[in-house]
């Protein structure tokens, strides 16, 4: 078997997936422009696994440069993590988001076609269920209306991959719809390292706990949910990474498009996250309640039955594990990979 190309493999989810694939015996090649990551993340992958990883620093939109990766390596499948992912920034800079996220996808598909690579796994998102679908989300629901350009890039890229698969009977496409990945590698050596002020809940909570930020603002407490705060399907990033190993096994024996939710199926509220984090780690997370954040849905969680039935995958880690590992990463690396 050839190598698995991890596009955006130095990032948060790509890096954890690299570790799990290497530990399962796969050979990987990482391509990343470090626009939202750092070479130090690759060094940590090597440190954890004791294996060296072929890495290319390049912009995946640059098809000519990307082609060299396919020329120099025997690639058997691609996992496409590369993309910009900050929802608020996508509202302010939609063209940059459409350009980056869609062009990276097209560039990869062009190289795959030219070099006879037939297998691709794509990092999609629960956001494609949009505003209309009722929770829990199941894979056969129609994609909905997104509240921001980031979400629309995911909808469009799913469509592009479906169309590519219709035109090429050899192509095997797996769309993985992630819910809310949090947590970090249990070693404390790898984790999420957002640039600037975090947009997402768990990095914000961790940075408040470590003293980098004064307090958390909980966005809204008057939602129609059990405690009035939004509920999400938080999934440990290592469970998520293991889901990719199962998807790699699956993608080789399959043709056409298959969609899987990767979530736990159990929602937790913002308040439950803060309480669990404080309790498990014995640290205070000062917080206040503020206005609702525009675009937030009251609830988002998966029906995760299909991944269990077809891939034989389910999550193993608890919310306490997620909170413990996020904190372990944050307190040992208060400034992320910049030490
Ligand atoms: P991340 O930002 O940590 O990783 C993405 C990686 O892609 C980064 O290392 C970045 O430098 C790289 N990249 C971006 N544009 C590139 C380009 N043009 N050329 C080369 N490299 C490029 O994000 P993540 O959290 O690991 O997310 C991975 C994927 O999963 C993304 O596509 C994201 O949209 C998707 N996703 C993430 C979440 C989440 O909450 N983290 C949820 C659902 C889906
Ligand atoms: C979680 C909950 C907030 C920050 C986003 C994307 C989604 C997917 C995952 C990529 C919400 C609340 C947050 C804060 C808060 N990404 N919150 N105070 O919005 O569910 O999903 O990331 O595909 O597409 O939209 O995640 O971590 O931003 O928020 O109260 O400072 O925490 O309101 O209820 P979200 P999140």
Please outline the major beta sheet.
7 strands, parallel
Number of helices: 11
What is the overall shape?
A: globular
Helix content: 40-55%
Q: What is the tally of beta strands?
A: 14
Mean pLDDT: 98
Output the strand order for the largest sheet: 3-2-1-4-5-6-11
What binds here, in terms of ligands, is: nicotinamide-adenine-dinucleotide, UDP-4-deoxy-4-formamido-beta-L-arabinopyranose
Sequence stretches where pLDDT stays below 50 over 5 or more residues: none
Please identify the structural class as seen in this structure.
alpha/beta
**Beta-strand residue fraction:** 15-25%
Radius of gyration: 19 Å
Q: N- to C-terminal separation?
A: 37 Å
The topology string of helices and strands comes to EHEHEHEHHEHEEHEEEHEEHEEHH
Descriptive notes:
The strands form 4 sheets. Strands 3-2-1-4-5-6-11 form a 7-stranded parallel sheet, with helices on both faces. A 3-stranded mixed sheet has the order 12-9-14. The model has no long low-confidence stretch (mean pLDDT 98). The longest helix is centred in the first third of the chain and has 21 residues, at 94-114. By secondary structure, the chain is of the alpha/beta class. The radius of gyration is 19 Å and the shape is globular. 40% of the residues lie in helices and 18% in strands. The protein has 11 helices and 14 strands. Residues 85, 87, 125, 127, 151, 180, 199-201, 204, 216-219, 230, 232, 270, 293, 296 line the site of UDP-4-deoxy-4-formamido-beta-L-arabinopyranose.
């Amino acid at each position: 078997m050839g190598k698995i190309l991890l596009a955006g493999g130095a990032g948060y989810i790509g890096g954890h997936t690299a570790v799990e694939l290497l530990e399962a015996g796969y050979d990987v090649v990482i391509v990343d422009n470090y626009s939202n990551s750092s070479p130090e993340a690759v060094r940590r992958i090597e440190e954890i696994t004791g294996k060296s990883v072929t890495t290319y620093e390049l912009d995946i939109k640059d098809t000519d440069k990307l082609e060299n990766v396919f020329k120099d390596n025997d690639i058997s499948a691609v996992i496409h993590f590369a993309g910009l992912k900050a929802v608020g920034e996508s509202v302010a800079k939609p063209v940059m988001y459409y350009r980056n996220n869609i062009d990276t996808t097209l560039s990869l598909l062009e190289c795959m076609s030219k070099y006879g690579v037939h297998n691709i796994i794509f990092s999609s998102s629960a956001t494609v269920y949009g505003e209309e679908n009722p929770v829990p989300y199941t894979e056969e629901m129609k994609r909905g209306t997104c509240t921001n350009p980031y979400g629309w890039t995911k909808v469009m890229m799913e469509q592009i991959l479906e169309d590519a698969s219709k035109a090429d009977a050899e192509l095997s496409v797996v769309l993985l719809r992630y819910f809310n990945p949090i947590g970090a590698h249990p070693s404390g050596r790898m984790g999420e390292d957002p640039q600037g002020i975090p947009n997402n809940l768990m990095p914000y909570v961790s940075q408040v706990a470590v003293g980098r930020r004064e307090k958390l603002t909980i966005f809204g407490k008057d939602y129609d949910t059990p405690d009035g705060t939004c509920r999400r399907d938080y999934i440990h990033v290592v469970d998520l990474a293991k889901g990719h190993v199962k998807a790699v096994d699956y993608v080789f024996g399959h043709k056409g498009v298959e969609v899987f939710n990767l979530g736990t199926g159990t929602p937790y509220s913002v308040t439950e996250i803060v309480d669990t984090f404080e309790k498990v780690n014995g640290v205070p997370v000062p917080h206040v309640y503020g206005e609702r954040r525009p675009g937030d849905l009251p609830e988002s969680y998966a029906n995760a039955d299909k991944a269990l039935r077809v891939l034989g995958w389910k999550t193993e880690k608890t919310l306490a594990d997620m909170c413990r590992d996020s904190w372990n990463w944050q307190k040992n690396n208060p400034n992320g990979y910049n030490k």
